[in-house]
């Protein structure tokens, strides 16, 4: 039994080391976002003067839906996926402002999605305004690219959790553009805001009902579970051993 406990202890230490290395690599990746693109490409996208209406996503007249789905990866990382759904008109570009919780989240980085990438190699502009807790997002294809329709992930954003468990995300100044001889902005687009946490209503927390596939476990979570399991076995063993020892001292075996 002692050999098994020694092996479990070594295994436990090894898991702690692997988790530390994984966390260091994740932090390094977040510290070096790949978001240096020319802002000149997005002069017409997401300006403060552009207003848009929120349409009922159940309406039969809308041309497409932009929605969000989020999950907490670890105690201090929040992942937000922004997706397109049911677009019947080919999409040239997407732009919006995303408002997020003040003093609750800090923007770390973005990752490209797979929606516009189906048509070519799109340009990105992702700029974070820390003072206003607002991300300015723009993505566009070239005129000679193929413009996608249907569903897909637009981009995935990562935030560091600073405080709290409830987070609200709100779209503003959204623009979806298409190309018909010249670039044109689409109308009748449904922009769905997103709330995450205990206080989110069923209509806000669309992550619970959406068909968008997001993995619920990441490597860090798996390592955490493995560490807890490895630590639990010797702990239970020593508790049982202590109980037996206590029983022998206080309740000695009776002899005839």
TL;DR?
This protein is of the alpha+beta class. It has helices at residues 2-30, 219-250, and strands spanning 64-74, 77-87, 93-100, 105-112, 123-129, 134-140, 150-161, 167-180, 182-185, 189-191, 194-196. It has one domain: Sandwich (Immunoglobulin-like).
Q: Give the number of DSSP strands.
A: 11
Morphology? elongated
Q: Helicity level, as a percent range? A: 10-25%
Structural class by SSE content: alpha+beta
Beta-strand percentage range: 25-35%
Main beta-sheet annotation: 6 strands, antiparallel
CA-CA gap between termini:
33 Å
Determine the CATH topology.
Immunoglobulin-like
Count of domains: 1
Can you tell me the CATH class? Mainly Beta
The value of Rg in angstroms is: 25 Å
Give an overview in words:
By secondary structure, this protein is α+β, with helices and mostly antiparallel strands. The chain has a single domain (33-218), classed as Immunoglobulin-like, CATH 2.60.40. The chain is built from two helices and eleven strands; from the N terminus they run H-E-E-E-E-E-E-E-E-E-E-E-H. The protein has helices at residues 2-30, 219-250; strands at 64-74, 77-87, 93-100, 105-112, 123-129, 134-140, 150-161, 167-180, 182-185, 189-191, 194-196. The strands form two sheets. Strands 3, 5, 6, 8, 9 and 11 form a six-stranded antiparallel sheet that branches. A five-stranded mixed sheet has the order 4-7-2-1-10, with no helix packed on it. It is elongated and about 95 Å long. The two termini are 33 Å apart. Residues 21-42, 48-57 and 202-221 have low confidence and may be disordered.
């Amino acid at each position: 039994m002692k050999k098994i406990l020694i092996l479990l202890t070594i295994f436990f230490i090894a898991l702690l080391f692997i988790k530390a290395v994984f966390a260091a690599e994740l932090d390094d990746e977040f510290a070096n976002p790949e978001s240096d693109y020319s802002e000149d490409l997005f002069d017409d996208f997401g300006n403060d003067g552009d207003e848009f209406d929120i349409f009922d996503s159940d309406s039969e007249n809308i041309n497409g839906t932009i929605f969000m789905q989020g999950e907490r990866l670890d105690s201090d990382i929040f992942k937000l996926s922004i997706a397109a759904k049911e677009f019947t008109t080919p999409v040239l570009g997407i732009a919006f402002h995303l408002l997020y919780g003040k003093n609750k989240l800090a923007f770390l980085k973005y990752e490209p999605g797979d929606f516009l990438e189906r048509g070519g190699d799109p340009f990105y502009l992702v700029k974070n305004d820390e003072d206003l807790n607002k991300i300015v997002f723009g993505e566009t294809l070239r005129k000679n690219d193929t413009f996608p329709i249907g569903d897909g992930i637009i981009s995935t954003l990562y935030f560091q959790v600073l405080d709290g468990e409830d987070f609200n995300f709100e779209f503003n100044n959204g623009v979806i553009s298409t190309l018909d001889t010249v670039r044109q902005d689409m109308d009748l687009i449904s922009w769905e805001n997103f709330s995450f946490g205990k206080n989110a209503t069923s209509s806000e927390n669309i992550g619970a009902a959406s068909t968008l596939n997001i993995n619920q476990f990441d490597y860090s979570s798996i390592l955490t579970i493995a560490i807890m399991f490895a630590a639990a076995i010797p702990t239970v063993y020593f508790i049982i051993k202590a109980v037996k020892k206590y029983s022998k001292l206080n309740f000695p075996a009776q002899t005839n």
